[in-house]
């Protein structure tokens, strides 16, 4: 039985009190998750017993470190439905997405300079080519594509958002014969809406475009299998899925990673280096230049083991219930406007909202006084806020350790906000 109260006991930070002894109600998991003791212990144990540079030393400790590093890769690959060689370590999803964008840029620049091999030409962009994104994107999956378009002469186009906060199917027609890349979120960090991945992948494939999925919000909250989804690339961050900060991953289909030029160059990703030129290792090492975040990958291994032990289907069902509880409770509060779907169907327990006449920072401060931790601001997603006609919002986001009591505490705090500011509704 999925019991968030017993799960909460596995997370040391959640045992602390805040604001004069109040129980911490942590509803900011969409920004970063808390870490279970198993993850903290795994990272600590690595530093105490096996800390060494990977893929370099011939001594026993270095061998242990390398084995731990690659075992983590295998565990994460299995967790997201990938092959071992299709997972590239990065320090976060932002770096992983930039890795893909700069791979396209480097392929284009190499081609224009008469460099690069025939396999890399598939990534070359020309003026008139188009890159498609959506209005729901986190800046990490928007700004790199803006920059790529500007530097290559490609055109950036986008899928619009509906008033409900979902992708508008009537604007999917922006995916056409000129489209080379379709970059889109699996689940919005503002509206919580889950994208119709199968439909977008089908349209992209019909036109020979590559798909890049931002799976930051989905990977920790629902079963994810990138092979079954059919995407070409996908990025996700460890810190949002119970793992340490400073580690994330890129999934790429093996044949694409083998052709993609590297983003960062230096030690650990080279084969032969002369004073005139360098050859690069095959993936995934080709994309892992320099000293890697070994202890953090060990922590990520422990995180996916913990999540797998609970069962991602169980976790998703639990959070669906929490999402509906939040939405139902907020529907009865005057002056509160949810920015996103009003039911839990194809939706995560990520609920951003606007309180009529009250700045999100003020909402967050009153909730914080009640011991309820939420996110305020534009959540690195200004375009979707603009689509809703607001500059910022308050966001409550649940996790595996969130209980129905936590949601009730949040709703009670929100009633306090309404009373404190005298909100009467629209």
TrEMBL record:
Q: Which reaction does it catalyse?
A: (sulfur carrier)-H + L-cysteine = (sulfur carrier)-SH + L-alanine
User: Which InterPro entries does its entry note?
Assistant: Aminotrans_V_dom, Aminotrans_V_PyrdxlP_BS, Cys_dSase_SufS, PyrdxlP-dep_Trfase, PyrdxlP-dep_Trfase_major, PyrdxlP-dep_Trfase_small
Function recorded in the entry: Catalyzes the removal of elemental sulfur and selenium atoms from L-cysteine, L-cystine, L-selenocysteine, and L-selenocystine to produce L-alanine.
- Enzyme class label: transferase
What name does UniProt use for this protein? Cysteine desulfurase
Q: Which cofactor does it need?
A: pyridoxal 5'-phosphate
Q: Which GO terms describe its molecular function?
A: cysteine desulfurase activity
Which controlled-vocabulary keywords does the entry list? Pyridoxal phosphate, Transferase
Residue ranges of coiled coil: none
**Any signal peptide, and if so, which residues?**
none
Query: Which Gene3D superfamilies does the UniProt entry name for this protein?
Result: Aspartate Aminotransferase, domain 1 (3.90.1150.10), Type I PLP-dependent aspartate aminotransferase-like (Major domain) (3.40.640.10)
| Domain Aminotransferase class V span(s) in chain numbering | 25-410
Family designation? Belongs to the class-V pyridoxal-phosphate-dependent aminotransferase family. Csd subfamily.
CDD domains to which the protein is assigned, alphabetical: SufS_like
In which organism is this protein found?
Nesterenkonia flava
Stated EC number for the protein is 2.8.1.7
């Amino acid at each position: 039985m999925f019991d968030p109260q017993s799960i909460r006991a596995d997370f040391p930070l959640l045992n602390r009190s805040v604001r004069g002894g109040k129980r911490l109600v942590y509803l900011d998991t969409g920004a970063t998750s808390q870490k279970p003791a198993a993850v903290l212990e795994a990272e600590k144990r690595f530093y105490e017993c096996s800390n060494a540079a990977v893929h370099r030393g011939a001594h026993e400790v270095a061998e242990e470190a390398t084995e731990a590093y690659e075992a983590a890769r295998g565990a994460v690959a299995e967790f997201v439905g990938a092959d071992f060689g299709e997972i590239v370590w990065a320090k976060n999803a932002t770096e992983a997405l930039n890795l893909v964008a700069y791979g396209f840029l480097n392929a284009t620049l190499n081609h224009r300079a008469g460099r690069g091999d025939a396999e890399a030409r598939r990534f070359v962009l020309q003026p008139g080519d188009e890159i498609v994104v959506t209005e729901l994107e986190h800046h990490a999956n928007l700004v790199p594509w803006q920059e790529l378009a500007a530097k290559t002469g490609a055109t950036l186009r986008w899928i619009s958002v509906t008033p409900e906060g979902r992708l508008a199917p009537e604007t999917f027609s922006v995916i056409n014969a000129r489209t080379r890349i379709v970059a889109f979120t699996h689940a919005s960090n503002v509206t919580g809406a889950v994208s119709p991945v199968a439909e977008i992948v089908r349209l992209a494939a019909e036109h020979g475009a590559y798909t890049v999925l931002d799976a930051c919000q989905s990977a920790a909250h629902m079963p994810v299998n990138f092979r079954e989804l059919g995407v070409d690339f996908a990025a996700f961050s460890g810190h949002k899925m119970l793992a340490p900060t400073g580690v994330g991953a890129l999934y790429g289909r093996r044949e694409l990673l083998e052709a993609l030029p590297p983003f960062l160059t230096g030690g650990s990703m080279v084969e032969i280096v002369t004073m005139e030129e360098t050859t690069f290792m095959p993936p995934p090492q080709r994309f892992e230049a320099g000293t890697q975040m070994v202890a953090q990958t060990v922590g990520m291994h422990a995180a996916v083991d913990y999540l797998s032990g609970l069962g991602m289907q169980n976790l998703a069902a639990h959070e669906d219930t929490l999402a509906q509880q939040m939405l139902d409770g907020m529907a009865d509060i005057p002056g509160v406007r949810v920015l996103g779907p009003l039911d839990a169907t194809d939706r995560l327990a990520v609920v951003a909202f606007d309180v009529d006449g009250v700045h999100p920072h003020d909402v967050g401060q009153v909730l914080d006084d009640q011991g309820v931790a939420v996110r305020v601001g534009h959540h690195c997603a200004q375009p979707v806020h603009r689509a809703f006609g607001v500059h910022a919002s308050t966001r409550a986001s649940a996790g595996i350790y969130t209980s129905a009591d936590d949601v009730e505490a949040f709703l009670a705090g929100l009633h306090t906000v309404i009373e404190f500011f005298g909100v009467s509704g629209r």
